Amino acid sequence: MRVLRKADSRFLAVLFGILGVVGCGGGGGMKSSLLVASAPSTSTSGSTPTTPSTTPTPSPTPSPSPSPSSPFQTNVAVTGQWVRTNSVSPDGAILYGSSQINPYYSNLAAIGLTHDPSSYSTVQRWMDWYINHLNWPDKWGLYGTTYDYDYNNGIATSHENADSTDSYAATFLTLAWAFYQTGDAEAQSYVKSITTKLDSIGGVLIQTQQSDGLTWAKPDYQIKYLMDNCEAYRGLRDLALVFQNAVGDSSKATYYNAAADQMLQGIESMWSNGAWAVYKDGVGNLIAPNMGKWYPDATSQMFPVLQGVIDPSDSRSQQAYSSLNNAWPGWPSLSFNTQDPFPWVLVGDAAIIMGDAARVTTYMQSIETKYVTKGFPWTWYSAEAGWFMRLNSYALGARPL
After folding, report:
1. pLDDT tens digits, 357-398
2. Which terminus, N or C, of the chain has the lesser number of Cβ atoms within 10 Å?
3. Against a cut of 0.70, is the pTM above it?
């Protein structure tokens, strides 16, 4: 457990160069000469970066294969160990803190754990917990949702409510595909065995999807969040991949891809005046971001590229990323803590997709200094751990995020 030093920075630079990931500018930032030399040249002035004339697409296969002693592999291992030791209840629930079960955060943690073979059993136990706690039906009349729970003295007590229905369902579907993609025979057999339940969970998204392609956060909270819908888009695509690849059901794959196509149109309609709307309200108004507000406004701008809705080479991805860096130039050093005390690793994940080696290196140094070398103190929690494992796995060459 060591801080990323200059030699590791050079390794990250070489890695980015070999993988051919797009380099992005935008705003001020901390740039190492080693990293700048290895990344494609782009504009770093103004709010609209220049799109490179040739944009390589990241390889879908892990290449190169760094030594297991690399800091990235170490980060994956120690983070997975931390989750298994500190954030898993005896019945398999992945906890938020020590006394809550938020299935959305748990799903994000488990997605990260799919990058660590030592954690596969933890992933499957969590998926069992989720499925065993599905509502048939819930308070809104939906089948296949989950609620939040308190967890005290080994007893889980339902809130009989959830922060959302769309994101909870979507991230579990993404988890199922991520677990299948490990190639582990037991994991793949397990995913195949729960496809009926996955179909019901996919139905949660279908039932809350509106004519514009977007989902309500939940039936009694009729706001169409950019973040939620990007996650829902990813979940629908991933469920289609499960049906096509795990069980050979082309009909179901086509069905869910069609819903994702409609959602894509809805998300693209949220691009307005050079930014992604944070949400669309109940009467159809697009609410523009205040980039001086870290969450949800500034962070939401990363979700279309983070969830694979649009490509990192897309001018909208680059403009949104540039706007974030212009508004929050110190985020790689965790300077947004005046507004939010959490590390927000997902922004680092977006940055590595954008190919920003300089900021990713600085960010990893910040995370390792504040959290990894100190044993992951609060405000570290399970979902951040999941995003951090994905960040390091991407640096190792794993595709997709």
Report:
1. 999 999 999 999 999 999 999 999 999 999 999 999 999 999
2. N
3. yes
**Residue 347: CB atoms within 10 Å:** 24
Distances (CA, A) of 281 to 221, 223, 288: 10, 5, 11
pLDDT given for residue 44 in this prediction: 28
User: Please, are residues 367 and 391 in contact by the beta-carbon 8 Å criterion?
Assistant: no
Residue of 186, 236, 181 lying closest to 62 (CA atoms): 181
**Residue 298 confidence (pLDDT):** 98
Cα 93 from Cα 91, distance rounded (Å): 6
Q: In the chain, how long is the greatest CA-to-CA distance?
A: 59
Q: How many CB atoms lie within 10 A of CB 6?
A: 10
CB atoms within 10 A of CB 233: 28
297, 291 contact by CB (below 8 A): yes
One-character DSSP codes across 143-204: SSB---EEEETTEEEE-S--S-SHHHHHHHHHHHHHHHHT--HHHHHHHHHTHHHHHHHHHH
The closest of 161, 162, 190 to 175, measured between CA atoms, is 190
Q: Return the closest-CA partner of residue 108 out of 255, 231, 244.
A: 231
Q: What is the pLDDT of residue 57?
A: 40
| Joined tokens for residue 103 | 């299935």
Question: Which has the closest alpha carbon to 26: 328, 322, 360, 348?
Answer: 322
DSSP string, 255-285: HHHHHHHHHHHHHHTTEETTEE-SEE-TTS-
Q: Check if the beta carbon of residue 264 is closer than 8 Å to that of residue 233.
A: yes
d(CA 236, CA 214): 12
Cα–Cα distance for residue pair 265/273, rounded to 1 Å: 17
Angle, in degrees to the nearest 10, between helices 166-181 and 103-113: 20
All CATH 1.50.10.10 domain ranges in the chain, comma separated: 100-269
Cα–Cα distances in Å, from 58 out to 18, 21, 153, 388, 401? Answer: 10, 5, 46, 19, 11
Q: What is the CATH number of domain 100-269?
A: 1.50.10.10
Cα separation, 90 vs 82, whole angstroms: 15
270 pLDDT band, cuts 50/70/90, is very high
Distance CA 26, CA 316 (A): 13
- Calculate the average pLDDT of the chain: 87
How many Å apart are CA 313 and CA 330, to the nearest integer?
A: 23
